Amino acid sequence: MDIYLTPSGGSSIRFPMLPESVSLSGEAKFMTYSTISLGDVKIPRGQGVEEIAWSGMFPGAARKNASYVRAYTKADDLINLLRNIRNNGTRCTLLVTGTCINIEVYVAKFSGKYVGNMDYNYDLTFSAARDIKTYTTSELKISKPSEPRVERPTTATQTKTYTVKTGDCLWRIAQNLLGSGSRYMEIYNLNRDKISDPSLIYTGQVLRIPG
Questions:
Q1: Angle at CA 59, nearest 5°, toward 58 and 60?
Q2: Which of 37, 83, 109, 190 is the most buried (most CB within 10 A)?
Q3: Beta strands in the chain (DSSP E)
């Protein structure tokens, strides 16, 4: 079993030592599997992994030829690579050979400290990368709500006509048709194209009357 982290557009990082355990957390449950006692890590089907975390060690130069070191890389180089990936929000592929772990992740947390022989003990947490797709209403086959129809009054419903008779004046017409003689100016304003003076109207004129 080996652990590889491959940044998008970059070269793979091979972890020099396997951690004692890997923690996988999902929405509904938390699972821990020992990579030493079991020899592999298994993820239950049906539940997407939200986070993967472990604590491990980057060996110092004194351990570079030890049998348990998978592929030696200077601790400083690994630290700088992981810090850059974390700080830049670089999307990566996490692969654990011999298991079903092969997912897109981001480095959520990375911290540690140097101990004896210049070994570096670290804590590392990955967050599963999720693609968010937006859909249009046509793709979801959702009809666009129609706008409510607004009935707009027409000129025909707002006005009516009246033919001037002998003895009529705008005041009398307003009194008879609008209920108040004081509204005669409404008739005048509506018929300015026919009436030049509100005191002068003629028999036979067809006037528009406000509704």
A1: 120
A2: 190
A3: 3-7, 13-14, 21-25, 30-34, 51-58, 92-96, 102-114, 120-128, 159-163, 206-210
Angstrom distance (rounded) from CA 113 to CA 148: 66
Q: Is the pTM of this model over 0.70?
A: no
Phi and psi (nearest 5°) for 53?
-145, 150
pLDDT tens for 58-111 read: 999 999 899 999 889 999 999 999 999 999 999 999 988 877 778 899 999 999
Every domain of the chain and the residues it spans: 2-128, 160-209
Q: Are 188 and 205 in contact (CB under 8 A)?
A: no
Give CATH for domain 2-128.
2.40.30.200
Rounded average pLDDT over 148-166:
73
Q: CA 94 from chain center: how many Å?
A: 26
Q: Any bridge partners for residue 30, and if so which?
A: 25
The pLDDT score that the predictor gives to residue 71 is 86
Residue 139 CB neighbours (<10 A):
9
